[in-house]
Amino acid sequence: MLKRHRFSYPVNVSSMYDHGWRNITNIDFSKPCIEQGRLSPSSASRPGVKWLVMDACSLTFEDASFDTAIDKGTLDAIACSEAFDWFLSRMARSIVRVLRPGGIWVCVSFTPPEIALPLLEECKEWEVEVEKWRSFWMYVGRKRGI
Ligand SMILES: C[S@@+](CC[C@H](N)C(=O)[O-])C[C@H]1O[C@@H](n2cnc3c(N)ncnc32)[C@H](O)[C@@H]1O
To answer: Which residues approach ligand 1 with their CB closer than 6 A?
Structure first.
């Protein structure tokens, strides 16, 4: 399953857009980070991409409103924080809520599964697989249901 996903998800906004992805929404709870993305030249040439200040542990999107969620650096930032176990569990529940049944979360991470996997798997509404890829871990979570 991971092999099938691995090459289908270019993990930056520009290359996703250029591969035909639309309805892309980026979030970060840092306003400067979001402003930098929104104002970047690559964003100007790719209309319709949304940039929102939002906490990944408390997403405000509607239930089941996304097919795919891609994490690049957020899990790792949270894993370095105090009380990371509480935040990681919250992030997992928040992501699962906004994924449609069958939807997937893809995360390229430096955080080893010994730390992250038990916390991600506390949420029973998805299945999470992990595989080593070069110096990274590739996590893929699939929300149960069709
Ligand atoms: C390593 S940076 C990655 C930034 C960006 N995703 C990228 O790929 O270039 C980690 C980011 O996670 C953000 N972050 C940390 N905790 C977060 C949370 N709970 N909700 C949203 N963003 C968070 C930080 O503000 C920081 O911008």
So the answer is: 28-30, 33, 55-57, 72-74, 77-78
